Amino acid sequence: MLPGILAIVQPTMGEPVYLRCYFPDNKTEVMITADEANSAVSVALPSTGYSGKMAAAFTASEVRFQGTHVAYVLNRTDLTVIRTIRMINSSDSGKCAIEKAPKRAF
């Protein structure tokens, strides 16, 4: 395929999207930064101080990403998220809201 045609066919990927997700069953908040241009997601759990970056698969309807012990499926339409914690074979669901990009000093 010619490079000029490829640019027309592929959608442009924007800036990272910042999400605040809440899992009501265990009252957990998870901060997610979805970076489609780099096929990556950063996850932070404010309650524990954990943060990490994971490879992600982006489709038109969902984003899938996983770490060693946990996997996420984020619905891009309604912003629901399913989290599976493999080490205890448990799943829960939450709801996300889009946040503004944080202001940076540099």
Describe the structure.
It is a single chain. 15% of the residues are buried. A hairpin with a 3-residue loop joins strand 4 and strand 5 (62-66). The longest helix has 7 residues, at 3-9. This protein is globular. An eight-stranded antiparallel beta barrel has the order 1-2-3-4-5-6-7-8. The N and C termini lie far apart (40 Å). The chain has one helix spanning 3-9, and strands at 17-23, 28-35, 40-45, 50-58, 62-66, 70-75, 80-85, 90-99. 7% of the residues lie in helices and 54% in strands. It has one helix and eight strands. With 106 residues, the chain is mainly beta.
Compact summary:
Helix content is 7%, strand content 54%. By secondary structure, it is mainly beta.
